[in-house]
Specification:
Blueprint: E1 3-12, E2 15-25, E3 30-34, H1 41-49, E4 55-63, E5 66-67, H2 73-79, E6 81-84, E7 91-95, H3 96-103, H4 116-119, E8 122-123, H5 129-142, E9 147-151, H6 159-175, E10 179-184, H7 190-193, E11 197-202, E12 205-210, H8 213-228
Parallel strand pairs: 3-10, 3-11, 6-9, 9-10
Antiparallel strand pairs: 1-2, 1-4, 4-5, 7-8, 11-12
Helix pairs in contact: 3-5, 5-6
Length: 236
């Protein structure tokens, strides 16, 4: 398995947030992680990427056949794990082209010409919501990742900008067989990215999984997350 999370329990400031997470992602798979606010989705993303603020008290994380539970964030980036931030900060005095040149792990950086109008601007300074997401995507892509974790990449985007961002994500996958884990509490993005697998998180646990994302969306829309944990999606 490309990424395997086993019985993961995580604390933040002595408060247990994740309560025994089991999650598997295959190579080249698009995996959606859906859930309401405060369900633990971002905590899982930060833990996989190695943020030391998130303390693993039980369980392990394996990536590309190695146990990375105790790896530093830098080691995980070098192995190919990249995290796209929900609210990327502005960086004054540094152009996007300069930043990409400094962090790029690939000689022939794709999509440069397509987004050339952003390159000479200061990173995320006076960028629109959609431009910030594109900027973040380009920065992540420069790291030549094997797994990209998108934390609420659809947050704050209208339908047009969401489609623009999803089009770029699809182009990335066409050029490279990258695994994607995208985290959201709003299911509209799934209609554009069409995930291979959907996991639903609720109160620190994954309560169901299914390959039929349309069925999950209909279940949540009709019953909400409280009722979703009672469903028998896995029995299909």
């Amino acid at each position: 398995m490309f990424l395997k999370v086993e019985n993961l329990k995580v604390e933040v400031n002595a408060n247990q947030i994740l309560k025994g997470i089991n999650l598997c992602i295959k190579k080249g798979e698009i995996h959606a992680l859906l859930g309401p606010n405060a369900s633990g989705k971002s905590t899982l993303a930060q833990t996989i990427s190695g943020n030391p603020k998130y303390k693993i008290v039980q369980g392990k994380i394996q990536f590309r056949g190695k146990n990375i539970t105790n790896f530093s964030p830098e080691q995980r980036v070098k192995m190919g794990i990249a995290l796209s931030w929900q609210n990327p900060p502005p960086i004054k005095g540094i152009s996007l082209s300069y930043l990409l040149e400094q962090i790029s792990q690939t000689k022939n950086f794709p999509f440069y010409k397509e987004w050339e109008y952003l390159m000479k601007r200061e990173v995320n300074v006076n960028f629109s919501g959609g431009e910030k997401k594109i900027s973040e995507l380009l920065q992540v892509l420069a790291l030549n990742p094997k797994l990209i974790i998108f934390d609420e990449i659809d947050s704050g985007l209208d339908i047009r900008k969401l489609k623009l961002v999803c089009d770029l994500i699809r182009k990335i996958r066409e050029k490279q067989k990258i695994s994607l884990l995208f985290i959201t509490h709003w299911g509209q993005i799934m209609n554009y990215l069409k995930p291979d697998m959907v996991s639903v998180m609720f109160k620190g646990k994954i309560i169901c999984q299914n390959r039929n994302f349309s069925k999950i969306l209909k279940t949540i829309k009709k019953y909400g997350y409280e009722e979703c944990k009672k469903c028998m999606l896995l029995a299909d």
